[in-house]
Design brief:
One of its GO terms (biological process) is fatty acid metabolic process. Belongs to the ATP-dependent AMP-binding enzyme family. InterPro entries: AMP-bd_C (IPR025110), AMP-bd_C_sf (IPR045851), AMP-binding_CS (IPR020845), AMP-dep_synth/lig_dom (IPR000873), ANL_N_sf (IPR042099). GO terms for molecular function: medium-chain fatty acid-CoA ligase activity. Keywords: Ligase. The strands form 8 sheets. Strands 2-1-12-11 form a 4-stranded mixed β-sheet, sandwiched between helices. Strands 4-3-5-8 form a 4-stranded parallel β-sheet, with helices on both faces. 50% of the residues are buried. The protein is of the alpha/beta class and 500 residues long. Helix 7 packs across helix 8. It is 32% helix and 25% strand. It has 16 helices and 26 strands. It folds into 3 domains: 178 residues, Rossmann fold, CATH 3.40.50; 159 residues, Rossmann fold (3-Layer(aba) Sandwich); 97 residues, ANL, C-terminal domain (GMP Synthetase, Chain A, domain 3), CATH 3.30.300. The mean pLDDT is 93.
């Protein structure tokens, strides 16, 4: 076979992509975890045996199987086994508990539920029983096994809904997002091509594999034939030994991950924290320009940041060969086939990587406009060069005395302050002004406590308009974040700091 990454991206289904890569480079490693290595050939063989085991338990094409499993080789095998069968799988982030898990099981009508047993002190099996889950299967280090000769033919098309992902539920019950094999392949293909990866790279999966980024990353590995190190529990500095031992060249996840690498680098500024690292990449949360410059300057690596969401895993991505200005201040450009339209400041999307909608038809109807564009709720603009600039969320615009204020603009400025490790800017109800601007700040260790006058003075020197200056400052030990890409949960800050 003489296939290129671009031609592999035309695979009809995820399983088709697995088969084609296994035929090209069966002996090359694909997943690395601690002292274990799985090759592309073994990935196909073992996943097919797991599929046969699941088939023997009653899993059929179209059967809904939920799984709440950590980032492990076994999790990837189980997921691919379900893809081989043509089942509908519903990944659930392993940190979710009764409310979110119960909602996902009920809404998806899952007939089977794979859990890790007791994991990190929490008994997932007991929780599954408490929630009345059906077909409970413990799948941490032991997976079903069977003879692949019993299996029906693999799915012939990739346009049917076979994935139900869940939004993070940061403001209400999570939404069930409907994806197909083709939408996930489209997202992963665009990401891989944008990053200019090669077969010589070694990646890393440091985020929950149950996140939409899981199949995104797997598609990249299958397209380019390079491996990735999997981290069941990611924490720095503990994980650094694995990065170094495997010679990781590409790492990241989100802005919080970049900041963690920078914090480690600053402990020993003269020694590169991961000697082989050439690229940090990610998305899922805003990236202040100063973070880009700090990564390039201090880590000696390139940083490319992109824009994606559960509904559309890859929308735009920075190009490693772009200008520093574009890499610092934009989210990159969309790939061929991703249409971006800005309507009254809101970003709307149409393309193969866009989801099919939501489990709730009413949510689907509200999310798409008359021309089939997904309403993202994000605000932004497209530059003359085709780069996307995010300016905030529609719900994240603070309206003070009738004037719209972008929280992101203020956050970007605060990110460069030496006494600020991270910051979130929120609007709080105010009887006279409608809303007031509140800056919630997380400070570096040993920093002198920041005061509101100091903060305001700094923002004035940065040229921030007077009407945008914060009227309130709250210093917290740690900003509340979700457990996937460590996105700040602003609704919790609003709840905490809104006066009763």
């Amino acid at each position: 076979m003489n296939e290129t990454p671009h031609s592999l991206g035309t695979a009809r289904t995820l399983w088709d992509l697995v088969v084609r890569r296994a035929g090209l480079t069966p002996g090359r490693p694909v997943l690395l975890q601690e002292r274990r290595t799985l090759t592309f050939g073994e990935l196909r063989t073992r996943a097919e045996r797991v599929a046969a085991g699941l088939y023997g338990m009653g899993v059929r094409p179209g059967t809904v199987v939920a799984w709440q499993l950590p980032t492990r080789i076994e999790t990837a095998l189980l997921s691919l086994a379900l893809a081989r069968l043509g089942a509908v799988q519903s990944p659930v982030i392993p940190f979710y508990r009764d409310r979110e898990v119960g909602f996902a099981l009920r809404a998806s009508k899952a007939e089977f539920f794979a859990v890790p047993g007791v994991w990190r002190g929490h008994d997932h099996t007991e929780m599954a029983r408490r929630l009345g889950a059906r077909g409970i299967l413990e799948a941490y280090d032991t997976l079903p096994d069977g003879d692949p000769s019993v299996l029906p033919a693999p799915p012939a098309e990739g346009t049917s809904v076979r994935w139900i992902y869940w939004t993070s539920g940061t403001t209400s019950d999570p939404k069930g997002v409907l994806h197909t094999d083709r939408s996930l392949i489209a997202g992963g293909s665009c990401l891989a091509h944008a990053l200019r990866l090669t077969p010589d790279d070694i990646g890393s999966i440091a985020f929950p594999y149950a996140h939409i980024g899981g199949p995104d990353y797997l598609v990249m590995l299958l397209l380019y034939g390079f491996p990735a190190v999997m981290f069941e529990h990611f924490a720095l500095p503990d994980a650094l030994a694995e990065y170094r031992r495997h010679g990781v060249t590409v790492a990241g996840g989100s802005t919080a991950f970049y900041s963690m690498f920078l914090a480690e680098q600053r402990k020993r500024p003269r020694t590169k924290v991961v000697p082989t690292l050439r690229l940090l990449a990610g998305g899922g949360a805003p990236k202040p320009p100063e973070v880009y410059h700090a990564v390039v300057r201090e880590l000696g690596a390139q940083l490319t940041h992109g824009y994606g969401m559960t509904e559309v895993p890859m929308i735009t991505m920075g190009d490693p060969e772009d200008t520093p200005e574009n890499l610092a201040t934009t989210e990159g450009r969309p790939p061929t086939g991703m249409e971006i339209r800005v309507v009254d400041g809101e970003i709307r999307l149409r393309g193969e990587a866009v989801c099919q909608g939501y489990l709730d038809p009413a949510q689907t109807a509200a999310a798409f406009d008359a021309e089939g564009f997904l309403r993202t709720g994000d605000l932004g603009r497209v530059t003359d060069s085709g780069h996307l600039v995010l300016t905030g969320r529609m719900k994240d615009v603070i309206i003070r005395k009738g004037e719209n204020i972008s929280a992101k603009e203020i956050e970007d400025l605060l990110a460069a302050h030496p006494a600020v490790a991270d910051a979130a800017v929120i609007g709080l109800p105010d009887a006279d002004r409608g809303e007031l601007v509140c800056a919630v700040v997380e400070q570096p260790p040993d920093a002198a406590e920041l005061t509101l006058p100091e903060l305001v003075s700094y923002l004035r020197t940065q040229g921030l308009s007077v009407h945008k200056l914060p009227e309130r400052l709250e210093v917290v030990t740690a900003l509340p974040r979700n457990d996937t890409l460590r996105k700040v949960l602003k609704y919790k800050l609003r709840e905490r700091f809104t006066q009763p």
